[in-house]
Amino acid sequence: MKERTGSTASRRRVLDGIAGGALLTLAGCLGGGAGGGEGSIAPISLDGERACDQCGMIVRDHPGPVGQIHFADDEPEGGRPAQFCSSVCTYTYRFDAEDGGRDALATFLTDYSSVDQEVFEEGSDVTFSSHVESSAFARTTELTVVAGSDVVGSMGPDLIPFGEAADVETFVTEHGGEPLDAEAVDRGTLEGL
């Protein structure tokens, strides 16, 4: 996939900064508390011995996309966001949590448009490198995932996320699959993998 150019990354940072400043100003005008709002939520690094909240595997030890979810109910996962070793684990946990009445404020997945990924072939399996640093994540509202490609994640067939349309096209040409807005993923999408 191609790297973002400096001007695209710089433009995005400027726009993110303006949007962040506007949200902080609005929160101040509305009397928002120290906790901030949905716009102030940022991804964390998933390094170290962090275990997936869905399946228990150590996140950094496995290939493919990883994820995290920040919840409105003061994150009962021990004061941290829920963390996951795959896109499938991320969505499965979110759907179960929402069915249980929890409110997911922000869901983040690896953005393969923003990292220099490595591709590994082992037998008939193709995997992408895992990236656990906070800068590797993007909100699902900004991502397109590819379902049904020949690239697998830590749990087998996975949804491979990208922030740039050109990277999605290149990936589909090389690895197959169907692009889907990351916010349109539902249980049926996961069952179809």
UniProtKB/TrEMBL annotation:
User: What InterPro entries does the database record attribute to this sequence?
Assistant: N2O_reductase_NosL, TAT_signal
Q: Which domain of life is it from?
A: Archaea
PROSITE patterns annotated for this entry?
PROKAR_LIPOPROTEIN, TAT
Tell me what this protein is called.
Nitrous oxide reductase accessory protein NosL
Residue ranges annotated as coiled coil are none
| SUPFAM superfamilies, alphabetized | NosL/MerB-like
Q: Which Pfam families match?
A: NosL (PF05573)
* Organism from which the protein derives: Halorubrum glutamatedens
Transmembrane feature ranges: none
